[in-house]
Amino acid sequence: MADSFKIDFQPPGKVESGDLIVFVGDNLKPTPAVAKQIGSKAVDLIAKAAAAENFKGKPKSAMTIVVPNGLTVDRLIVIGVGGEKDRKDMDFVQLGGLISGKTNGKTATAVLDLPGIEVSSDAAADIALGVQLRRYSFDRYKTKKDDNEQKGITRLILSVADPAAVKKTYKARESVLQGITLARDLVNEPPNVLGPQEFAARAQALTKLGVEVEILDDKAMKKLGMGALLGVAQGSARGGRVAIMRWKGGKANDKPIAFIGKGVVFDTGGISIKPAAGMEDMKGDMAGAACVVGLMHALASRKAKANVVGAIGLVENMPDGNAQRPGDIVTTMSGQTIEIINTDAEGRLVLADVLWYVQDRFKPKFMIDLATLTGAILVALAQEYAGLFSNDDELAERLTAAGKATGERVWRMPIGPEFDKMIESKFADMKNTGGRFGGSSSAAALLQRFVNDTPWAHLDIAGTAMGSPQTEISRGWASGWGVRLLDRLVRDHYEG
Fold this sequence. Notes:
Its main location: cytoplasm. The protein is of the alpha/beta class and 496 residues long. It folds into two domains: 6-159, Leucine Aminopeptidase, subunit E, domain 1, CATH 3.40.220; 175-494, Aminopeptidase. Helix content is 36%, strand content 19%. It has helices at 32-38, 40-53, 84-87, 92-102, 121-134, 163-188, 196-204, 218-224, 227-233, 287-301, 347-362, 376-381, 393-406, 417-422, 439-448, 483-493; strands spanning 6-10, 19-24, 62-66, 75-80, 107-111, 155-159, 212-216, 241-248, 257-267, 307-317, 329-331, 337-339, 367-371, 386-390, 410-412, 430-431, 456-460. It has an eight-stranded mixed sheet, with helices on both faces. It has a six-stranded mixed sheet with strand order 1-6-5-2-4-3. A three-stranded mixed sheet has the order 11-12-16. Helix 4 (92-102) packs across helix 5 (121-134). The radius of gyration is 25 Å and the shape is elongated. The model has no long low-confidence stretch (mean pLDDT 96).
């Protein structure tokens, strides 16, 4: 994001220069107030240009008129919001991204008066958030910067009815923006820069926001009996870490809510090594941990009124002479044993110990873990939804609702005794893979053995968090998926 860029909120008024952005429905007409503001000549010009360019005012469509007759602005940008049906589920964050993508003058003004749509303070703040998310880029390792992409604009004015109310609402969105940016940066970092220790140090930096952070090293984990996590870490020259982050924004006696992230900073597959093609993407196998750190930043920054625990297991899965083998049996912190069938099914081993540690130490109201856990979830849900597995209907329903509200959608998948049976082992309490079929569900069944009776949800984000599809608000490789979803969940249900 360019440091010089600024968003301002101002009341409606005449726009003299730069880009002017207005909105029309499928009848190609702006609202009466906007029509009055831009004048009848500009309204007629929109209709003529639309006919020439076959612009129908459909949602997410846009048309640019350069040096528009009757206006002093450089460009008139017309964005469609569609008909009545299209307007019911308007995603204002995505709309903000679309606005950002269409501007390239030094200054731009978007008149947030949309036909048939009420733009509340919340909606306007979401638009501003979308604008900023679109501007994200990760180019710190490029010696020659690309100046063509979004770098020209230095100021965007959002014209709103009540600027003071929108500014106040946007402050909380800025905290979420910072959390998403942090999560994206972590996922995008190269693995030689971001090992387990360096990742733990990034988590430690949250102390500046009032988060209490504790780091467990190999020695501490060995003392606790985290044999499953350490089994993954033992093949790397870089030791594992667990970072525990605590934000105490709620009442002293309130049980905390807990978020756990898989942080495999690089995953070769270990002895069961992956194919070389595409292995560079395995730097993103810590996207669950990145989300948890980003979420903790967002909650602490906006001073959320909740007690929250974030815990991340950080390891590197490498195939050296000390690496664990297929056939090994590890003893988890819970005392349960796991036979290693495939060393590339390592994320569940990391989570098994961290989940047990969190439920045992903090006795939380619920636990939600996030992990780029299985390729099988991509087969089931592509990159459109994260897989949701849960032992608690209320928690699952709340996550689903938060997903609909934010656009970070989840789809509930089955978990039950049939999948438990798939991970039965001849030699240990369980094995770490259940075979090719139902791979996401059998992985979730293993995790469920480490949560006891704690309400719990597992989000398999292998399809949504890295190598993410291009959207109006995510143009890079890492989306920062989950920060908005979980911030919304906390905001809607768990702040007292």
